[in-house]
């Protein structure tokens, strides 16, 4: 046997393939480190003797997330870190990473512990609760120290383990007592921190509900909103508004009625003038909650307040001030306010007017041929008058536009008599004698405006904010006046006759739709846009659209 043959004899293929060995730990086992809380003595006090200072501040551990008993792990670690042992619940583990900052390790969240974890061995939630409550109750604590303690407390309030213990030993009750008795009335910043801590604590499900708070507490919080507390602080105000809103929505009728007595809707309007967006958002949120919870007669009062000058001015000058980027939350609340206002119009539009109401509007001298300033320059026969009355009646008893059409026409006569006179004079000067009935056209224009604003039904995609509705004391009327003027101009430009009314209305709708796409923020800006979109200009737009469509169709045919 040659050397090559000899060497070959020592190598052969294994009869079975080698198995791969998985050296990874099971998913339930994680390795990491535990460090000792350097502030442990602060929470344990005399339970941690001074001579107990140890140089052992770290321990490395393998943790079975699925099976290991947490108390056994904590005991094992406390022994390894040379801490005094006690039968009482002394120690606990907390997460260190930012995602779970300040959260105690419990059986509910133990699955979140990752490979390579770092946990902190610290005092138990019970010890933390006792420490903070004793600090808060300390009569000699200075305001500065109290503010620091409250800031530390706020960082812990979101933890359910701490909150449960804090409530068990009377921590919740003490905070309510502080507010009700005004124990820190001389420090607005401390009051604010107490309320912020309370908001976080009360957010835990099942510990305590806002329906359980005392009437004295509600009254005290309300004073921060109405000004009776004689102190102004935006952070305190934000917390107070938030709390009142939560109490209002706590499904307790007695508390709800108390809120309506203690926080009148009109008392909120002045806060809309503030520049702090947190305040504005919470004020609008509470306003909408008050409306939703109010009885019908109170809702009517609230809607009236939404139309008064102070509210509109506050919205225009502060909330919607020029050059300011509108906060998304504020915009959503304004959209709700907008819908409340539109719903009021909807109620009127869906009401059938009485014969007397119809007759009253129809007989207005400014609108008929009995006046030298009437809409007609020629003599109207009694038959024509009767026919117009029947047509007008038939139009306004439809719902919509219903009573809203009559109300709008009446207000138009009151506030825009000069416009009516101008239209009458211009019509009287027409050589072709092609006139139009202001009464009948007005009903059509009211219906058009109802459709444009989605007064009756919210659009499928949801309401969008129309800023110009908040910049007028009478937005529906003022927009109606714009439409009347636009109709009159377009009628002239189209050289229309009586049978062309529907055509003119269709053009007017196109004009207003195109201009609203520009999102004008005032009615004046809308009028400027409409002035640029005359009927001849609209014809040019339609011609361009037709040409583009034809070119697209030709291109499509060429591809085929």
UniProtKB/TrEMBL annotation:
PROSITE patterns in the record: ELMO (PS51335)
A Gene Ontology cellular-component term: plasma membrane
Entry's Gene Ontology BP terms: actin filament organization; cell motility
Annotated InterPro entries: ELMO_ARM, ELMO_dom, ELMO_domain-containing
Organism domain of life: Eukaryota
All residue ranges annotated as the ELMO domain in the record: 356-516
Name this polypeptide is given: ELMO domain-containing protein
Organism for this UniProt entry: Wuchereria bancrofti
Organism placement in taxonomy: Eukaryota, Metazoa, Ecdysozoa, Nematoda, Chromadorea
